[in-house]
Amino acid sequence: MKNETQEQLKKEVMEKYGKIADQSREANAASCCGATGCCTVDGALMADDYANIEGYVADADLGLGCGLPTEFAQIREGDTVVDLGSGAGNDAFVARAFAGESGKVIGIDFTEKMIVRARANAEKLGYSNVEFLQGDIEHIPLDGDVADVVVSNCVLNLVPDKAKAFGEIFRILKNGAHFSVSDIVLTGELPEGLRQSAEMYAGCVSGAILKSEYLALIARAGFQNIVVQKQKKIDLPAELLQDYLTTDQVNDFKNGATGIFSITVYAEKQALKN
């Protein structure tokens, strides 16, 4: 039953983001869930501003991120960078600006329409060292020990088996390499009314887990030197919460210990000792 539920969630994510791939950033930013239409709040609540980041390509930005992982990823000239959940290519193109002509960027996305759109953007830009592959983050279609840096922007919260995803990130990273990922996490228990909404899962925050659990999964995957590089609270408006919660629950959510945060996390795969 668990596997059936996970496969159903993956199918819903693919369907929702397939619709998003056909839309503009403006259309997606009109709601926190893009094409899912589950609410009507300003997308800026989730996304950060890329406008002044080197390598930014507006046509590749669908407004779906919740951080700027490439800004924190310490990418160097010549690095091989893997972007998980690459969408239309936004973070991959930013990563290329850091990795340079001698580097390589590989974007992985679950949704075929996103891959098509990202490849079209790369072709239009004339980038020969950026490629996009369709694949599941729980089973990344790459050999082990290939990446100097892994980045991801607001995607791992959509992965049902996060432990497997972090295990895959560990596998594809070279020894001594690292990742920087932005994602949505919780403090305190998210009320069941929000958790049970498949629309919220596919497009917003209901796939998120506790921050403490998220960081523990990273450590259990074998990573070291785990650092939260940035944290930002996501203030969902009362009118959204009222669709899922009672008035008392809304007040507890807004004023209590429970919260939703965007975090950017850095961690390293230990280098082998001589």
Helix vs. strand class = alpha/beta
Question: How would you spell out the order of helices and strands?
Answer: HHHEHEHEEHEHHHEHHE
Q: From the alpha-carbon coordinates, what is the Rg to the nearest angstrom?
A: 18 Å
**Overall 3D form:** globular
Number of domains: 1
Distance between the amino and carboxyl termini: 46 Å
Portion in strands: 15-25%
Per CATH, the architecture is 3-Layer(aba) Sandwich
Can you identify the CATH superfamily? Vaccinia Virus protein VP39
Stretches where pLDDT is under 50 for at least 5 consecutive residues are: 29-43
Number of helices: 11
Classified by CATH, the class is Alpha Beta
Q: How is the topology of this model organized?
A:
Layout: H1 2-21, H2 25-29, H3 69-72, E1 80-84, H4 90-99, E2 104-109, H5 112-125, E3 130-134, E4 147-153, H6 162-172, E5 173-187, H7 192-195, H8 198-203, H9 211-220, E6 224-233, H10 238-241, H11 247-255, E7 259-268
Parallel strand pairs: 1-2, 1-4, 2-3, 4-5
Antiparallel strand pairs: 5-7, 6-7
Report on this structure.
By secondary structure, the protein is of the alpha/beta class. The chain has a single domain (about 1-270), classed as Rossmann fold (3-Layer(aba) Sandwich), CATH 3.40.50.150. The chain is built from eleven helices and seven strands. α6 links the parallel β4 (about 145-155) and β5. The longest helix is centred in the first third of the chain and has 20 residues, at about 1-20. Mean pLDDT is about 80; it is low at about 30-45.
Features:
11 helices; globular; 35% helix; 7-stranded mixed β-sheet; alpha/beta; 274 residues; Rossmann fold
